[in-house]
Amino acid sequence: MESDKQSSGLCAKCGKPAAITLRYMPADLCQSHFVRLFEARVKRTVRQHRMLKKGERIAVGLSGGKDSCVMLHMLHKISQSLPIELHAITIDEGIEGYRSRTLEIAKEQCSRLGVPLTVVSFREEFQSTLDGLLEAKGAARACTYCGVMRRHLLNKYARELGADKIAIGHNADDVAQTVMMNLMRNEPERLGRFGLTSGAVDDEAFVKRIKPLFTTPERDVAAYAVMKGIQIEFAECPYAKNAFRQYIRKMLNEIEGKYPGTKLRVVRAFLEQSRLMLDGARYRIEKAGSFAKIGRCKSCGEPSSGKTCSLCLLLERG
Ligand code: SF4
Ligand code: ZN
Q: Which residue of 12, 111, 150, 268 is surrounded by the most CB atoms within 10 Å?
């Protein structure tokens, strides 16, 4: 598993000077062969997992960070040959000194590609910015609040736009981190819901999610953005340092350094597990004669597996 192959400094495809070393393959590639590999891999992932269909309207979750910008760029590229309609949604959580910069990038990317953009803010939707909310709740739980609130808004606005799917810019590193976090927290049902394509829940109030970059390592996304001149912001959210995810990220990066390809193996293992879980769910659904329907939150009316949804529980509503 451990790779001892020395980098030759030359592209494995054409012998020109290499621009990048992909240790997980392992291979050195020049810029043009790396770009080709990158684009082919994303398109293959989209095709293999039947993420897009002709004529669909896709809501693109666009934070303005490198992953979502590269995803928008790829979906736009795909839309040249497969007619799909793109509409970006950016959530402004209200994070001082961070979100305003990425918001600008999101707007610029959309106007460059001619993709309409809807900006939704926590301040308008929840009468408070994330910063404001955390003054009372404490910064340690920033990502819990942020994640639940953002997911709720993305789903709600995508549904209102009549979107068939929401595209999320999670890369292979994000997926591997989430898998490890869920294992360590023993939250299998969360992992079940995390699905990379559509899950076993079929409910019209839930817009299905797709993750076109889930087989692409984060480092490749950054390299592609630089090579293609896609404007990216490397600044990190100020709350990220508090997150459990950061420990997992560091740990996975260390393991990857010693055993290249580990993150992609975690992603593949998760995919296999999900397939088995989904098969099990389909079997139960077939026996029951219909898809599992989930209920509605008694406070806000959004879909919820319990009486009150996780957003209303967090915000102590209802
Ligand atoms: Fe939200 Fe946490 Fe991401 Fe910051 S790091 S944007 S608080 S989820
Ligand atoms: Zn609710």
A: 150
Minimum-distance ligand 1 atom for the alpha carbon of 245: 5
- 71: how many CB neighbours lie within 10 A of its CB? 25
Task: Give dist(CA 210, CA 165) in Å, integer.
Answer: 7
CB-facing half-sphere around the CA of 254: CA atoms within 13 A: 6
Q: How far apart are CA 246 and CA 236, in angstroms?
A: 11
56 torsion bin: left (phi>0), alpha (psi -120 to 50), beta (else): beta
The pLDDT tens digits for 258-268 are 999 999 999 99
Q: Are 98 and 63 in contact (CB under 8 A)?
A: no
Residue 219: both structure tokens together: 């480092």
Neighbours of 100 (CB within 10 A): 12
3-state DSSP call for residue 170?
Answer: coil
Alpha carbon distance 23, 187 (integer Å)? 32
Question: Any idea which residue has 């898998």 for tokens?
Answer: 179
Domain ranges of the chain: 49-276+292-314
| Per-residue model confidence (pLDDT) at position 138 | 86
What's the pTM value of the predicted model, to 2 decimals?
A: 0.90
d(CA 45, CA 217): 13
| Pocket residues: Cβ below 6 A from ligand 1 | 93, 142-143, 146-147, 237, 239-240, 243
- Of all residues in the chain, what percent are helix, strand and coil, respectively (each to 5)? 50, 10, 35
- How far does residue 72's CA lie from ligand 2's centre (Å)? 30
Could you tell me which CATH class the domain 49-276+292-314 is placed in? alpha beta
Res 284: pLDDT: 62
Please write the tens of the pLDDT for every residue from 233-257.
878 899 988 788 999 999 999 999 9
**C-alpha gyration radius of the chain:** 20
| Separation between Cα atoms, residue 71 and residue 213, nearest integer Å | 7
Residue ranges of the chain with per-residue pLDDT less than 50: 1-4, 198-200
| Nearest CA, atom 7, ligand 1 | 143
